[in-house]
Design brief:
It is built from 14 helices and 13 strands. With about 400 residues, it is α/β, with parallel strands linked by helices.
Length: about 400
């Protein structure tokens, strides 16, 4: 590395970046081992590591073992050199988590979105919460390196414009929110992504999709959407709108979309409209008090008892989802489908049914599974993007 032609400052920064990234990924080692791995001279390694220590990026943690002679001083990446925040805005609540660079979650909180009149008010409250979490853990604002937000709708990465925003989002674009956060944390990088895309990244990096190059994360919640990982990378499309499978049609005989047919909102409407469920009073148990969504615990009790009407509603929904996913898998040669959202809380054998439909309709084997990150897939997707951004310029801080 050090012998390549170029500006000495650039060479030094590149060397330090590579050394820091290696330590981040591989853990504790010695300067001598780094010399062997990267074919760098000992003086070069010592000088670069000394500068990384001065920047608080690398730590000396004590002497290592030795077969004979002087014991080497071990060095390690300083995972507490900076901190990151990830936000999930997919549902009724804004959830946020603060972590160090080893992804040890230091604090978390959530805010009921409908309590705020605008996006600006909501994020102003978020800043208050982040400040409180950092103060409790004695973290300086200058050490907050990145905030990633997972928001509903497509996000144009060039303009910051969010299309199909949720009802509370009355700011024109995310630039104003970004400016608000940057005023509070001038050294912080703000990244805004579609929430379902972040979920796909989270599952690929830390969840059930680890090691999988081509997968789809499908969320069936109040809406329906998908995040696609192709060849190990997030695929967002030409207009950052890939994965909007909720707009798919399941039949030419209806104008209803997939979201109209299978979302939690749709299942709620199917229950309301079902004549048998209405006649015998079961509807009062199956819906929430305001009748805007389903009462999942009561529905699960009924499904365990083989409630014929509910079983038919669920069967129809999963059949429609399975057919759409079959077409996507046949087109893109997908290895894994991950199902997330509130639908996974319903006590219906979704995985078995989807396996039957998909593997009956297409000649390639596709695995299905549920999100494995305990409803934190968006949070961990945000963490993944933060770390990628930080490691790109780790020796420049």
């Amino acid at each position: 590395m050090e012998n390549k032609a170029g500006n000495p400052k650039t060479i030094r920064e590149n060397n330090q970046k590579v050394l820091a990234q290696y330590l981040f990924k591989h853990g504790t080692t010695s300067r001598a081992q780094l010399s062997k791995v990267f074919h760098l001279s000992s003086p070069s390694v010592y000088k670069n590591i000394a500068q990384l220590i001065d920047q608080n990026i690398v730590l000396e943690i004590g002497e290592g073992g030795s077969a004979g002679g002087r014991r080497p001083m071990l060095i390690s990446f300083n995972y507490d050199m900076g901190y990151i925040v990830s936000m999930d805005l997919k549902g009724e609540y804004l959830k946020l988590a603060l972590a160090n660079l080893e992804l040890t979650v230091i604090g978390r909180d959530e805010i009921l979105i409908r309590d705020y009149q605008s996006g600006q008010d909501l994020f102003a409250k978020s800043i208050e919460i982040i400040n409180d979490l950092m103060q409790k853990n004695h973290i300086n604002a200058s050490n907050l390196l990145s905030i990633v937000m997972g928001v509903p709708g497509s996000v144009n990465q060039q303009t910051g414009q969010v299309n199909m925003p949720p009802i509370w989002f009355n700011v024109g674009d995310m630039k104003r929110i970004e400016d608000l956060i940057c005023q509070a944390y001038p050294t912080c990088k703000v990244i805004i992504k579609n929430d379902i895309n972040l979920a796909a990244i989270g599952e690929m990096r830390y969840g059930i999709g680890t090691g999988c190059k081509n997968l789809i994360y499908v969320s069936v919640d109040m809406g329906v959407g998908a995040g696609m990982i192709m060849d190990g990378n997030l695929y967002e499309g030409s207009r950052f709108s890939s994965g909007e499978i909720g707009y798919s049609r399941t039949s030419l005989q209806t104008t209803k979309t997939l979201e109209d047919e299978i979302s939690i909102r749709a299942i709620t409407e199917h229950i309301k409209e079902h004549e048998g469920i209405n006649q015998d009073g079961r509807i009062d148990k199956f819906l929430s008090k305001d009748r805007k969504t389903i009462n999942i615990p009561e529905i699960n009790k009924a499904l365990v008892k083989q409630d014929v009407d509910l079983l038919k509603i669920m069967e129809d929904a999963i059949n429609k989802l399975g057919l759409i996913l079959s077409n996507i898998c046949a087109l893109l040669d997908i290895e894994l489908i991950i199902i997330g959202g509130k639908i996974v809380d319903i006590d219906y054998d979704i995985k078995t049914k989807l396996d039957q439909i998909i593997n009956t309709n297409i000649p390639i084997e596709v695995k299905t599974g549920f999100s494995s990150l305990n409803d934190d897939e968006i949070i961990f997707g945000g963490f993944a993007l933060s770390l990628d951004e930080i490691l790109k310029k780790i020796a420049i801080y």
